[in-house]
Specification:
By secondary structure, the chain is mostly helical. The protein folds into four domains: 66 residues; 54 residues, no CATH class; 35 residues, no CATH class; 81 residues, no CATH class. Helices cover 73% and strands 0% of the residues. The protein is extended. The two termini are 13 Å apart.
Length: 242
């Protein structure tokens, strides 16, 4: 094992054990490595910001390609620091307000492109279109053997929803309307139907939040298992072969 590999394995093992020491109780060793990690992450973030963004997209065009107008974003960015000068603090508000407006516009565009397709996808057929005995047979065969339908069933036979798709569409619409009813506060939920739908929507929300929380726990457990695997496997190389 090379000297650099030895140093990285030892540093990783010591750092992992120091962070895991919080499971016992709060201690200065954990605090030191916590601040060390934050400092390293901040320094790495600044380095990546310079090497990936500022240097190729700002410094090279301005300094090497003679595009002097790139100096203006730098001067505008310096206005951020006028917040520490009481008489000039209003200049920082101009920059902050402008960037907040740009961010709000970009967020609205992202919302439109992200949620509009989801809203459109919520409009699902609840009844089989082009209902006929042939379409029903095609739907049943398609549920069991879609390759057979695509290869052997004539195109003249109308297409139809499978039973699973039909049930799934009804489930989606019922849960969607129930959750929307739970968040609809324009009138009091006095009707038993409205109260029942709102209660059902709340239960569906809790189940969804539980699933999301479970996925988060699984991701955290995967990270913990990877560190435990590192502690059990990688340091073995320190003792040499055998």
């Amino acid at each position: 094992m090379s000297g650099w590999t030895l140093a990285t394995v030892v540093a990783g093992a010591v750092s992992t054990l120091a962070i895991f020491s919080l499971l016992y109780k709060e201690n200065p060793v954990y605090r030191f490595f916590e601040y060390l990690f934050i400092g390293l992450a901040t320094g790495y973030g600044l380095f990546r910001a310079w090497s990936d963004v500022l240097y190729p997209r700002w410094w090279i065009p301005m300094y090497q390609q003679g595009q002097w107008w790139w100096m203006f974003p730098f001067l505008i960015g310096l206005l951020y620091y006028t917040i520490y000068i009481r008489k000039l603090a209003w200049m920082s508000r101009l920059v902050i307000g402008t960037l907040m407006g740009l961010g709000a516009g970009a967020s609205f565009q992202a919302i439109a492109t992200q949620y509009a397709p989801q809203i459109a996808a919520s409009f699902r057929p609840l009844l089989p279109p082009n209902w006929s005995p042939l379409s029903a047979v095609r739907g049943l065969i398609r549920a069991a053997a879609p390759e057979f339908v695509d290869r052997y069933v004539p195109a003249s036979v109308p297409n139809n929803l499978t039973a699973a798709e039909l049930v799934n569409n009804w489930i989606v619409i019922i849960i969607l309307l129930s959750v929307m009813t739970y968040f609809f506060f324009s009138f009091e939920h006095r009707s038993p139907v409205v109260r029942g739908a709102a209660k059902f929507g709340r239960w569906m929300l809790m189940i969804s939040f539980g699933a999301v929380f479970g996925q988060t726990i699984m991701a955290r457990m995967a990270l913990a298992v990877s560190r435990l695997w590192f502690l059990l496997v990688d340091p073995r190389g320190l003792a040499g072969p055998g």
